[in-house]
Design goal:
The structure is a single chain. By secondary structure, the chain is of the alpha/beta class. The protein folds into two domains: 86 residues, Leucine Dehydrogenase, chain A, domain 1 (Rossmann fold, 3-Layer(aba) Sandwich); 129 residues, Rossmann fold (3-Layer(aba) Sandwich), CATH 3.40.50.720. The chain is built from ten helices and ten strands. A five-stranded parallel beta sheet has the order 5-4-6-7-10, with helices on both faces. A three-stranded parallel beta sheet has the order 2-1-3, with helices on both faces. Helix 6 crosses helix 10. The longest helix is centred in the N-terminal third of the chain and has 23 residues. The radius of gyration is 19 Å and the shape is globular. The protein binds ligand LMY7XDAE and magnesium ion. The ligand Nc1nc2c(c(=O)[nH]1)N[C@@H](CN(C=O)c1ccc(C(=O)N[C@@H](CCC(=O)O)C(=O)O)cc1)CN2 binds next to helix 2, strand 3, helix 6 and helix 10. Homodimer. Its EC number is 1.5.1.5, 3.5.4.9. One of its GO terms (biological process) is methionine biosynthetic process. Belongs to the tetrahydrofolate dehydrogenase/cyclohydrolase family. Catalyzes the oxidation of 5,10-methylenetetrahydrofolate to 5,10-methenyltetrahydrofolate and then the hydrolysis of 5,10-methenyltetrahydrofolate to 10-formyltetrahydrofolate.
Length: 289
């Protein structure tokens, strides 16, 4: 079966809109998100436009700061300091990737962890790693687990989850979340031996490597839940560009119990979970008043 991420994301946004309205009427505060984008990468601009639109649609304030590609690291750092100290800003997000001359990890480290709605700051990774409450958890991994639970139910205990990919943004945090759900977790990557055999043992297979259609039907266990994080643009034989995941959807569909499509699977959940984190950051800010 197909797991509809677009619909699930819409349902989550509807729920969040109600919670935002309640928060506003109770505390007289409107949650706010500031998104910074540097340069003119077309895909990044589309993602940011969608973030701004969806933030506003659920009743939160959205500020977009567009900076030219020549922006220096120091300029970005001083802007972040200003936003960190601004009590009216609850969430701060710097769209990635940044231009080559800017050190991404220095920028991520400069965001106040309590406003880090991407959940990329080491303080939030540490909170997630330690299973501490109050962690802002990266959005795509949250989306993956919500979609897996939508198909499998709340309890993932004892299931074998195999994650392909070990990035700080998806692979590592999704593995931590699945471990928190009492899954037995295997993290695999480009140097893993016997990758197809390992994947074939997965009850939950999360593919986040960025290689178009890497995962074939014979990598998938009968009845498995397949979560495809890949967003790869390929050129078809007819010369058109097409978006495909890390999993060969058509092949895997026959074997698996359920699979997320690309587009319309994990992607839409990323932005919905960003909105969830922004509301959480606004709620957490009440504690420091
Ligand atoms: N600061 C961040 N930068 C980046 C993140 C992030 O979470 N935080 N993730 C990605 C980009 N991204 C959000 O920023 C993102 C990517 C894709 C989608 C999405 O909905 N994709 C659609 C397809 C869209 C298309 O046609 O291109 C889908 O999968 O259905 C949402 C958000 C990297 N940077
Ligand atoms: Mg993300």
């Amino acid at each position: 079966m197909n797991i509809d991420g677009k619909l699930t994301a819409q349902t989550l946004r509807d729920k969040l809109a109600i919670e935002v309205a309640e928060f506003k009427s109770r505390y007289k505060i409107q949650p706010s998100l500031t998104v910074i984008i540097v340069g003119d990468d077309p895909a990044s601009h589309i993602y940011v436009k969608n973030k701004v639109k969806q933030t506003q649609e659920i009743g939160m304030i959205s500020n977009e700061i567009k900076l030219p590609i020549e922006t220096t690291e120091n300029h970005l750092l001083s802007l972040l300091e200003q936003l960190n100290n601004d009590d009216s800003v609850h969430g701060i997000l710097v769209q990635l990737p940044l231009p080559k001359h800017i050190d991404e990890s220095a920028i991520i480290s400069a965001i106040n962890p309590d406003k880090d709605v991407d959940g990329f700051h080491a303080m939030n990774s540490g909170r997630l790693f330690n299973g501490e409450p109050g962690a802002l958890v990266p959005c795509t991994p949250q989306g993956c687990v919500l979609l897996a639970k939508q198909h499998l139910g709340k309890d993932l205990s004892g299931l074998h989850a195999v994650v392909i990919g070990r990035s700080n943004i998806v692979g590592k945090p999704v593995a931590m979340l699945l471990l928190q759900e009492n899954c037995t977790v295997t993290i695999t990557h480009s140097k893993t031996k016997n990758l197809p055999e390992l994947c074939k043992q997965a009850d939950i297979l999360v593919a986040a490597v960025g290689i178009a259609k890497l995962v074939k039907a014979d990598w998938v266990k009968e009845g498995a839940t397949v979560i495809d994080v890949g967003i790869n643009r390929i050129t078809t034989n007819e010369g058109a560009t097409k978006l495909v995941g890390d999993v060969d959807y058509v092949e895997a569909f026959e074997k698996c119990g359920a699979i997320t499509p690309v587009p319309g699977g994990v992607g839409p959940m990323t932005i919905a979970c960003l909105l969830k984190n922004t509301l959480a950051a606004a709620k957490n800010s009440l504690q420091s008043r």
